[in-house]
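Example: Phosphatidic acid phosphatase type 2/haloperoxidase domain-containing protein.
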Amino acid sequence: MDYLLMAILGALALGVNILGPASNRVFPVYFRNGEIVNPEFSYPFRRNIIPSWLAGLLAFIVPFIFIILLQIRLRSLDDVNTATMGLIFSLLSTTVFQVFIKWIIGGLRPYFFSVCKPNISVTSVGTGQGFHGLMFDRSICTGDEKEIDYAFETMPSGHSAIAFAGLLYCSLYLNGKLKIFANYRPQYWKFV
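Written out as structure tokens, the predicted fold is:
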């Protein structure tokens, strides 16, 4: 049953990640005087330094190494299995939660305009939606659809979320096995 749940969570996260942003987001480009509204979204496009798959792999491998190293003291295959399943559940549930928030809430990445490549001139300000017609939707974008979808989903950071999930699980696992914060005074070497 656990393996089925993990497969469902993984498929759910992958499915939501493949979908475009949930809502039709609107954004301003120019003020009425022709000035760019949000220059912080005009940075040049840069790929991730660490790809998402590598961040996920590191978030699994680093705690897994600690789990395996602790087996020098514990010598329990059942503990390895249970700890690994817990780690995978931690990573998968964090990924699903993060992907859903990013899908529903999102936001604009700092390089949004360089990916969107809006086809709008300063003279067409006022033809959009909202107050004074300053807001536009993705129909003015001429860039690649996948890159635009990715540029619409900025927060929360997937890299930070997965790293936090893996390392928090690792710290709780180590605390549980080494009894670092127990009621009695533990040996000093356990802190190191």
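Residues 40 and 130 are 21 Å apart (CA to CA).
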